[in-house]
């Protein structure tokens, strides 16, 4: 299927709900993403998100003109409230979709997970581009072998809130975990995975008094 939506023009984000019945229905979910996050408006999160990531094979795919790293096997997962959410997809947005303390960065990676019921949980990590070498991973025939922990910051503090997917259909609820440590990423690596769709950040959505948590 060809992509009918875009980030600019008459198929841009403000018109996504008009492009199909499916997009319209998804847009009715009231708590949309991304949002701007600030420390002052948070309350403490007492529940832990724990990571059980392992080195595994990912296939490089172009879906809707965006590069995705898709796990070949269901191995890596996170645990939240005694529920396992398996890693299903890694992709990125340039520039970042979430804003933290009024700061937008050049790049945001999304690590998408789903539990056995298909409920989504997304970890977002913001990056700035550097001239550092690319992460060391093995590559063979459009497949990559790496530990997805390489996308996680050293400092595991994060915002947590309920939102939606940021590409159509923008369904919810999605459990968002947005890490607040900004991290370096090789600009040469990102140059390689860039597509014509960039910039690909959905504009900020209304927070609508939703609860936003912060875990130190
Ligand atoms: Zn995304």
TrEMBL record:
Q: A GO CC term?
A: cytoplasm
Q: Where does the Alpha-carbonic anhydrase domain lie?
A: 3-216
Please list the GO terms describing molecular function.
carbonate dehydratase activity; zinc ion binding
Report which superkingdom the organism of origin falls in. Answer: Bacteria
Do you know which InterPro entries this protein is assigned to? Alpha_CA_prokaryot-like (IPR041891), CA_dom (IPR001148), CA_dom_sf (IPR036398), Carbonic_anhydrase_a-class (IPR023561)
Alphabetical list of PROSITE patterns matching this protein? ALPHA_CA_2 (PS51144)
Report the Gene3D superfamilies cross-referenced here: Alpha carbonic anhydrase
Concerning PANTHER family, the annotation shows:
CARBONIC ANHYDRASE (PTHR18952)
UniProt-recorded name of the protein? Carbonic anhydrase
Organism of derivation: Tetragenococcus osmophilus
